[in-house]
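Encode chain A's predicted structure.
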Amino acid sequence: MTFDERLYLYALIRGRQPRRVLEVGTARGGSALVITTALDRNGGNGHVWSVDPLPRLALSLRLYRGRFTQIAEPSPSGIHTAAAQAREPFDLIFIDGLHTYTQVGLDLAAAIEHARDGALILLHDAFHLGVSTAIAEAISAEPRLRDCGYACSRVRPIGDLLTHAGLRVLRLGSQIEEPDAHVDAAYAAAGLPPPLRDPRLLDHDLWYCGYVQPCDYCRARAEQAGPSPR
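Encoded structure for chain A:
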C-alpha cells in the first residue's frame, strides 16, 4: 500500500470506529497492523479477522495488541469461517487478496453476505482490470451496493499489461445514512439527552446566530426570555 492509502485506512478506522473488521488478504500483515493500531486507539473491543490461505506475517503478534485473528483458509470459505467467529455481521471489510476478476467476484459476494447494513467495503488495487470489472458487475447486480468512488486515486504503473493501486470504497445499505442513530448514541454515552430536532434549528449556527443574525429559534428564545435586565 502507498503512504496515502495507509493513511486513509487508518483515518477511516479512527473515524468510523468499527467493532468487527474483515480483511481478505493478509500477506505480511502490514495493513492488518494499520487496522489494529487504529482500533486500539479507538478503545473498546474492536477486532480484525484476516483471511489468507498462505499468510506470511513479518511482524510479532504482540504488535497487533490482541485485536487480530488469522484465518489460514482461502476465500470465500475463510470469510464464512471468520463470520462464524465474529458472530455478528462485519462493520468494515477490506479486500486485498488475489487480484483476478473471478476471485474478487467471489470475495465480494461472500463479503456482502456477512456485512451489516451500512457497512463499508474497501478494495485495494482497484485500478486492476479484473478488480475494477468485478466491482462494476457487483454494483450492477446488488441494488444495496453503492459506489463511493476512489478514496485514493494515485495509479501505480507496473508494466505494459496491467496497473495496480487505487483504493475504492463501496457502501452496503440505503443510499442516505441518517444521522440520528449516531448522534443519539454519542449523547447517551456522554450522559446527555439527545439534541433538539426542532425545524427552526435548520439554519442555526452558533457563530452566525451570535455575531451576524439570530435564526428563528434563537429569536423565539430571546422573545420568551424577555428583555435583559439592566
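The first helix runs from residue 3 to 16.
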